[in-house]
Amino acid sequence: MNEQLPVCVIGAGVSGLTAAKQLIDRGVDLDCFEISSDIGGNWQYDSDSGRSPAYASLHIDTSKQRFAYADLDMPRSWPAYLHHTQVFEYLSKYAETFGLRERISFHHEVLHVVPDGEDWMVTVRDLASGDEFTARYRAVIVASGHHWDPNLPLHDGPFSGETMHAQSYRTPDRFLGKDVVVVGVGNTGADIASELSWHANSVTLSTRSGAHVLPRYVFGRPLDSFSTRRSSQLPLSVQRAAYKALLYAARGSQESYGFPAPDTPLLSQHPTVSADLLALIKDGQITVRRDISRFAGEDVVFTDGERTRADVVIYATGYRISFPFLEESLFAPDVNKVELYKQVVPVDIPGLFFIGLIQPVGALPPLAEQQARWVAQLLDGHSLPSTGEMRAEIITDSFERTERYQDRPRHTIQVDYWPYLDALESMCDSNEAALSAD
Question: pLDDT per residue over 343-369, tens digit each?
Fold first, then answer.
């Protein structure tokens, strides 16, 4: 690796911004390429890249204290759960505070990333001029996100209505008076179904396996404030029992609202956080059905034999993890599964790193920030464990993830906030100690 060469950072969203900041802090030269005209990634509403899934009413589902980078505090006057415009304002303040904008080439699309000896050749297209160029880098940090390539299920039978992915949803006005089926009961599906229940003629929520629906607030406190570093060290069975008791005291049983809990125990799937969904189901504004079996003209038929008329089907069915600028022979997710040490480092591809390629139970920015801090240290001369050690840990992590979470594509990159943050911090601490000892 030629340490005189800069590092290439792909993306200027939550992960790319902190990656650039951490590299600058370590004195590592970099170029950052962003396909859209501004920072923010998913939080840039109606991004001209066409990739942002943000809708007009979107709020974060973690509290602002947990969402903030360690390097920049949130305004005290802001609410606990931020609107997407406030998230964008916060990211803009972060970029301004640390002088990041001048390091970013906007409207630049990365086309190819190819290893060349110990270095990397990166081909980029300037979308304004159409010109392409190739530059050499010592390393590449992929921070382009994993919520931009929609996963659209296929169903048998003709459908006379409209189908769309939740990525294209912005406002409820065009669904006024229509019969809508929302597929998927993650955070996005719950939000869209709840909002449309006040505008559409009918809303049906289709779910394959159900979900544990958690309130935003419990006893007036943000739900994630009950999760601490100490509580995360308790046995999983104790954590489940504590959360179950807390939720029951706050809102009673989920089943009492007409939305049965899934067969899997609490904390075995990514939670759905919604202040409104259960009440709207109980009030009859949202009808819950099983998975879609097939289409039949203007009807949607479900696996339990029920059917409903629909003008629109909105798929809130997540995204595929994909990196079109990387050759499949080099690195390709297998049904959203990736093999990365600490969810950052591909063992056999030196000089390639991934920031933000995780689905945390909790907020992403502090975890991406710590990932980036560790990568910046690696690029500043710190060492990785041996190949054998890294492979062994990848296998162990995969096994533990499979034991803990449902076997679903959405859980292949799942991490728990506190244990994962502690693991990354320990890597940095040990590396710093080793460096000072030298």
Answer: 999 999 999 999 999 999 889 999 999
